[in-house]
Amino acid sequence: MDRAQVGQHFTEQVIVAQHLAVVGGENDPGGLVGQGSAVQKRALWQEADHIGDEMVTATYFGAAHTNGDAIVHFERANVVHLGDLVFNRLYPGIYRPAGASIRHWITVVAQAANHYPKDAIYIYGYGSAKFGGTGGQGDLPVFRDYLSGLLDHVEREIAAGKSKAEITALDNLPGFSEFHSAAPNRLSGNLAVAFDELTASKG
Hints:
six-stranded mixed sheet
């Protein structure tokens, strides 16, 4: 798929989002940002419709990057647009005030890998210079493992008695060299969100 085709499918996604009420619709009464845990219990939903000769399906698997990210599948073109649900070999943005859940994001990425065709073209919200913003299904478990590794690392550090300031001082997460980038990067923010999520669950 060339850049023109990617752009075409992104434009289609925007049209689909408006048509299916992915934004500001049934799953988003009053908007997501700032609602936090109040939006965590929404059920999965799926909507499908034709745009021209293309069958387009939007599916929401639950809280992840925020609590309002749907995956759009262009079935005839065999393209899966994950948007910000996958940062391809980049430290992701994680928006806890908008209902993000790292723990459930791991589940969402695993569900997506099982749900969509193995031979589809996958489009991501962001990708590193080396790996790019498009790829194959094999990118999904790489990102899932990063999220799992992030939570595991912070959980170990908390158990070791380290403070939030000490935990978030790390420049790059060991074991995930493909995600490494020069500081400042998003890792400190990722570690902070993981700390808040883990300590909130204990409270």
